[in-house]
Design goal:
3 helices, about 220 residues, mainly beta, 11 strands
């Protein structure tokens, strides 16, 4: 089991239990067009943002180490050599020591949530996707041990959706509780796509094309 807080108010537990009933864990669907790698389906690393000549000298705390979350998967389209689109949803475990719902010094367990969508994904056995977490987010939501808590203590869950339906999922570390991520308090809006952070030009040939927002007339 990974390291996580368990103290939540009673009415939040009711909501959580309802969510567990309505959103059960699922296995890989038959003939899934997306299949995660068995051994390195989710990997994390800390990467340094390059100074592009700005005057700030990095973040307010002088730490510009972002967390890179990469997932490894295979694609087998039912027809042709391309999958129209696939969305990867992520739940990154953390702990909020400042949340008033938690006990002082202990906080509550949270999940930093987000997603990335790719289009025209080619058939292949070694495909990758990526998202990034800002240094200040790592600083806010660790358990008191710094950014390394996200490697040593916390887990990550990734789900692949095709046509709005989940087709496969994987955890960075195996858990006995298959829905360990569901009770965590969601914290959305903190997951960066490659085109939203300093790594927009990193490994341009490694990932499929990002799905862009719909054009507005």
């Amino acid at each position: 089991m990974s390291f996580r807080a368990t103290t939540l108010r009673r009415h939040h537990l009711v909501v959580i239990l309802a969510g567990l009933i309505s959103v059960p864990a699922f296995a890989q669907v038959a003939n899934s067009p997306v299949i995660f790698a068995n051994t390195d389906g989710v990997t994390t690393s800390f990467v340094q943002a390059q100074n592009m000549g700005g005057s700030s000298g990095g973040s307010a705390r002088g730490d510009n180490q972002w967390m890179k979350v990469e997932f490894h998967y295979a694609v087998t389209p039912a027809v042709g050599d391309y999958l129209d689109a696939v969305t990867f949803k992520v739940w990154i475990e953390g702990r909020d020591l400042l949340d008033p719902q938690g006990q002082p010094g202990k906080g509550i367990a949270v999940a930093i949530t987000g997603s990335v969508s790719y289009v025209n994904v080619p058939k292949g056995k070694d495909l990758y996707g990526v998202v990034y977490i800002h240094p200040s987010t790592l600083g806010r939501y660790n358990a008191g041990g710094g950014s390394s808590d996200f490697d040593r203590k916390f887990n990550i869950h990734v789900e692949a959706d095709v046509d709005g339906k989940p087709v496969d999922n994987i955890d960075k570390r195996k858990e006995q509780d298959l829905v360990w991520f569901q009770p965590l308090k969601p914290v959305p809006g903190l997951v960066f796509l490659q085109n939203q952070c300093p790594f927009i030009s990193s490994d341009p040939d490694r990932y499929p094309a990002l799905k862009l927002p719909a054009a507005q007339n």
